Amino acid sequence: MQLELTGVEKTYNISDSVKVPALSGIDLRIEAGEFVSLVGPSGCGKSTLLSILGLLTWPTAGCYSFDGRDTRTVSRRDQARWRGDAIGFIFQSYNLLPRESAWRNVMFPLSFRANTRSTRKTAAMHALEAVGLAHRADHFPSQMSGGEQQRVAVARALVNRPRLLIADEPTGNLDSATGKEILNLIMRLATEYGTAVIMATHDASVASRARRKVTMSDGRIISDARKE
Amino acid sequence: MDWMYTTGALLRDMQTNRLRRILSILGVVIGTSAVIASLAVLEGGREQLSLHLERLGVNMVFLEDRLRPETVITHEYRRDQVTLSQEAAPDSTTAKGRILVKRRMAEASESSGDSENVPVPIHGVLRMRDVSALRARFPGANMIEPVMTHWSDVAQAGGSPFGARIEGGTPAGAVVRDLQITEGRHLIETDIDHSEKVCVLGAEAADKLFGQSAAVGRTVSMLGSRWRVVGVLAQKGTMMRFDYDRLIIVPITSLQERTGVDMVNALLIQARDGEAASRIRTELKAEVLARLHGRDPEEIRIFCQDDLVAQYGRTMSTFRILTISIAAFSLLVSGIGIMNIMLVSVRERTREIGVWKAVGATDADVLSFFLAESVLTCVLGGTIGIFLGVLLASEASGFVANSVSEMSTWTPVFHPVFFGLSLGTTILVGLLSGIFPAIVAAHLEPTEALRYG
Ligand SMILES: Nc1ncnc2c1ncn2[C@@H]1O[C@H](COP(=O)(O)OP(=O)(O)O)[C@@H](O)[C@H]1O
Ligand SMILES: [Mg+2]
Question: Is there a contact between A120 and A107 (Cβ–Cβ < 8 Å)?
């Protein structure tokens, strides 16, 4: 797997006269299995960049090639399939479906693919087990703590064994101990599954554990550092 | 998208988000029940009014052939006992018609010889089998009853004779005209089948013959034989230029046998309703004339309550417009309600839609989920709405009947088509109003959806 952004720009049109440039001149390349942390002050464009990488929004200019294919030539329908098959998401605010139990939340991404109900449920239970919440399978998000909810979200993001995991401040809503747990979980599973991770974060300790650190400011990448 | 999962998710959502569910279903329930109730109440009113006007004779059509049997009768009793008065043989019988019938009669009697008590086959007049053919031709008629009228002298045994109108009729002929009996009975089928010599007297005829004493069981002499009185009609007066009180009704078969003439010179028609009556009225004459080759069209007359029929038509179309507009209006209101609820439902779920899309839902997946939601809402709400509508209609009708004194009974009428119509249209409206928000939801950019709320 290989992701490549070349000259990517993103401008939000608030109105005809007010335009917010969120990203400009982004060149970035991510290889299979990499772990990348994305840092920078709030409002610098981290979430926007992650959304573009995750095919949740589209650049206003520039090229994003996913596995060597220019995404501008891929239909929305196929992009949805790619999201389902190759990409997992973890959000700061968990974004679980509030009216579904933990295991149904984890199973949800599988319901858009052709497979039997029993294999889906088995896969969901395995994923819950991997995040240590098999015993809470029937609980609803409202019955779980933030850390538990985020663990369910990790299970949901990884239930498909995606090649890319996009995490937007996954520890932002959690205390540091719980945040560390979640981070360990993500790193362990990503390594196990060979999933590339790109994680936006404010947490310096989190960032320090990544092998590659991309720093942004004002919609631009100002440094891209690799540790040996 | 897995439909089992969709339905399951909907049902789970229904349990956990009761208020919103109840509200959206309520919108459909109100819409459906309003349509059903208004249709049923108005249709009930329409039928009630129609019935009311029918009692006034709006659905009756009379046909009269002005050629009288008297002009073609050549039998013994006529020479002996019957003297035709001026009144009995009206001038209006045209020379042409009379000549035609007489010529054909002459031909007939040459071939079959003397034929007393056997109806003479004559042409150019309506006969019993024409009546059957007309019944088949006009399914909009409940009854088409043959009548043969004949003027004759009538007398009580030993009394002095007077001229009366003898009507050969059928039991149903009395029903068509709503003739009531005060004494004895009406004609019955066996009277017709066996050509019984029985008669039912008009109120005035009975008075002339028997005064205050009971008439039933007595006998009267007419047409050269004796007839047993079986009933006396209540006073009715003149209706459509026809004096019922001086009438004497006998079985049509008996009259045809006695006079030896197989002819029908009037038809009593009761149509299904005023509309059918006016259709029959416009088509009947041509149909009859086609069966009576060469007859003068002037001799065939049709009577009906023209003013009443016109009034009936206007009232009924007013009612129809009222019904359609009320039904359309309640559909519109419920449609807007459903649409609102659907839009709110999508808006509330916008963030969820973002999650769906992030985990791989295509636009079509999102679209089909919201469509499934509207179908389920509409079918559930529509079914409850039907029951509520039936209840509502009964209540509303009771209320209307109480406040409109002339309409003591106003029962709602439920045609099966009303159920289909209201359920079908609310589902259609629900789908249409579900489609728009569903399309809006499906086309959201995932980030926009995720940022929502
Ligand atoms: N949907 C949007 N509409 C308008 N402006 C937006 C939108 N999303 C982000 N922005 C703006 O783009 C810039 C980058 O935002 P974001 O990518 O969320 O930054 P970060 O995640 O680093 O805090 C900010 O100035 C933000 O206000
Ligand atoms: Mg952000």
Answer: yes
A47 CB less than 6 Å from ligand 1?
A: yes
Contact (CB<8Å) B359/A112: yes
- Domains, chain A: 2-226 (3.40.50.300)
Q: Could you say which DSSP state residue A174 is in?
A: S
Measured CA distances, B289 to A196, B125, B128, B143, B296 (Å): 96, 10, 15, 20, 8
The strand ranges marked E within B95-161 are: 141-156
Distance of CA B410 to the CA centre of its chain: 18
Q: Do B362 and A111 touch (CB under 8 A)?
A: no
Query: Given this model, what pLDDT does residue B74 score?
Result: 45
- One-letter-per-residue 3-state SS of B41-81: HHHHHHHHHHHHHHHCCCCEEEEEECCCHHHHCCCHHHHHH
Residues of chain A with pLDDT under 70: none
The pTM of the full predicted model, rounded to 2 decimals, is: 0.65
Q: Which residue of A has its CA nearest to B351?
A: A95
B362 interaction partners in chain A (CB closer than 8 Å): 76-77, 80-81, 112
Whether B136 contacts B58, CB under 8 Å: no
What value, to the nearest 5°, has the Cα angle with vertex B206 and ends B204 and B211? 95
DSSP SS3 for B425? helix
Identity (one letter) of the amino acid at A218? D
Please choose, from the candidates B61, B57, B84, the residue with its C-alpha nearest in 3D space to the C-alpha of residue B73. B84
Torsion of CA B393, B399, B403, B408, to 10 degrees: 70
pLDDT tens sequence across B38-84: 888 888 888 877 777 777 777 888 898 887 776 665 443 333 333 33
Q: Is B17 on the interface with A (CB under 8 A)?
A: yes
State which ligand 1 atom lies nearest to the alpha carbon of A48: 17
Cα distances from B133 to residues B119, B127, B136, B137, B268, in angstroms, run 20, 10, 5, 6, 15
Task: Answer yes or no: are the C-beta atoms of B371 and B431 closer than 8 Å.
Answer: yes
What is the distance between the alpha carbons of residues B332 and B240, in angstroms, rounded to a whole number?
47
ipTM: 0.94
Q: Which residues of B touch A51 (CB under 8 A)?
A: 446-447
> Closest Cα partner for A93 from A165, A167, A159, A27?
A167
Indicate whether B136 pLDDT > 80: yes
> For residue A44, which amino acid is it?
C
* 8 A C-beta contact, residue B148 and residue B122: no
Q: With a 6 A CB cut-off, is A43 part of the ligand 1 pocket?
A: yes
Using a CB–CB cutoff of 8 Å, tell me whether A100 touches chain B: yes
Instruction: Evaluate whether B168 touches B148 at the Cβ level (below 8 Å).
Output: yes
Q: How far is A28 from chain B (nearest CA, A)?
A: 21
Read off the pLDDT of each residue in B415-424 and give the average, rounded to a whole number.
83
**Contact: A112, B12; criterion CB under 8 Å:** no
Q: Which helix (H) or strand (E) holds A165?
A: strand A164-168
Q: What is the pLDDT of residues B92-135, one digit of tens each?
A: 333 333 433 444 444 444 444 444 444 544 567 888 889 999 99
**Which alpha helices (H) appear in B161-213, and where do they start and end?**
171-176, 189-193, 203-210
CA dihedral B127, B179, B187, B73 (to 10 degrees): -40
